[in-house]
Every structure is written in structure tokens, then in C-alpha cells.
Amino acid sequence: MRYIDVENLTFYYDREPVLEDISYSIESGEFVTLTGENGAAKSTLIKTTLGILKPKRGKVTISKKNTRGEPLRIAYLPQQVASFNAGFPSSVKEFVTSGRYPRRGWFKKLNAHDEEHVKTSLEAVGMWEYRDHRIGELSGGQKQRIAIARMFASDPDLFILDEPTTGMDDVSSADFYRLMHHAAHKHGKSVLMVTHDPEEVKEYADRNIHLFKDQNGKFACFDLHTDREQNVKGEVQHA
To answer: Where would you find the membrane-spanning parts of this chain (predicted)?
Structure first.
């Protein structure tokens, strides 16, 4: 099932064209990376797809329903999302738990299933033992991981991630890519992830969309399909 379909998208900053005639799609159950050189407008493409920025022309269609016929839930993780200051008042668990409220409504009490989902999300990023710590006490990489845990706690159908492993070490990054692969292939989630290092993630991703500058100095894109096996060793378990 197609969750995102972008056709001939063009975006201008003021009068300067940045993206021209970009077309791509994302299907349910696949993990797709978005790459390109510095300045290739990767974040701009993400924001235009989501409607945060308005395209000059073109068509963006995002499915209203998931594969179960329920309203499609989207989680967007922008760059520098983990820049909490030292005085941020929430504990780690409180912060991640807040990701469950939009599912049940802000004034409904969370149940045991919600609590278990929060625990599973924190365990998936290796942060359960820090659940009672204040966010301001954490390192940059740890803050990034709890931001990801909060996103997982919301249980979206479509993950849109802009360089989510910034600040993480190599082991944590690999664990995260494995988690995304598992979410897509075992739970039918869809993942579109901006990355500056396609080699690091190619073992886990199904497909790469690459933005490049054409002969006229405008950015276009093409799909790079991988031939890797669908099974990734050492998959994590995530409910």
C-alpha cells in the first residue's frame, strides 16, 4: 500500500528554485533512506512532503488510511530535536509517556498496555535504566534516543526521520537501524530516513532515494534499489 506519493514537486526559496520535478513514493512495510550531498535540500524535501513548506508546483499525496483501514499515524523527527536544555523539567519516563496521550486523548488515563508500550520503547533504545533521570542530565546521544523512544511510544504507521542518529555512537546507530528494519518488516511500518552516511545503513534499508545536482544546477532524484536479503541478523524484538 502506498503511504506517500510525490509527483513533479518543485520548491522555491524566494525566486530561487531548489527542488525541481521531484517524484518518489514510499510503500507500507519498507525502510527507505534519503541521501544527497550537503545542500541537496533533503530536509526541504521532507518538509515539503509533509506540508510544512508549500511547493511551487507538483502533487503530494499522503494516504489517509493505514493497511488496516485505520487513520494513518505519522511521526516526524526533525534535526536537532534533542536540544533540551539542562533545566528541562521532565523525567525520561514522563517525556516518553507523553507520546501516548495523543492516542487516547489528553484527559484519559493511561492503562497497563500504555505503560508496557512506554517500557518497551525505552528498552528498545537502551534507556529504560535512565527512566527516572531528568532529561537535562543526559548526554546529547541519550537525549536523541529518548526522543526516538517517545516517537515509538506514539506507535505511528509512518516514520519520517531527519538524521536521527546524530550524536549516537556506532553501536547505538546500528541498533537503531536494526530497530527500523524490524518495525518495517515485522510490523508493517514505513520508514523514510534522511542520512548522510548511506554505507552505514545500507545493510538494513530496502531502498535509497538519492538527491543529486543535474547539469543545470538543479536537484533531481533517483532510486537506488538494494539486492540484500530481507532478513537481518540479530533483529531486535519490538512490540
So the answer is: none
Whether the Cβ atoms of residue 58 and residue 7 lie closer than 8 Å to each other: yes
Query: What is the rounded average pLDDT of the residues 46-70?
Result: 95
Question: What's the rounded Cα separation, in Å, for the pair 40 and 113?
Answer: 42
pLDDT tens-place string over residues 161-173: 999 988 788 888 8
Alpha carbon separation from 23 to 6, 9, 49, 60, 222 (Å, rounded):
5, 6, 11, 9, 9
Amino acid at 101: Y
Is there a contact between 220 and 22 (Cβ–Cβ < 8 Å)? Answer: yes
- Of the candidates 154, 211, 237, the one whose C-alpha atom is nearest the C-alpha of residue 33 is 211
Domain boundaries, the chain: 1-73+156-239, 85-155
Question: Would you state the cell numbers that stand for residue 131, as one nine-digit string?
Answer: 527512566
67-104 tens-digit pLDDT: 999 999 999 999 866 666 656 678 999 999 988 876 55
> What is d(CA 216, CA 79) in angstroms, rounded to the nearest whole number?
29
- Classify domain 1-73+156-239 at the CATH class level: alpha beta
What is the pTM (predicted TM-score) of this model? 0.84
How far is residue 57 from each of residues 14, 19, 62, 214, 235, measured CA to CA in Å?
14, 10, 16, 19, 41
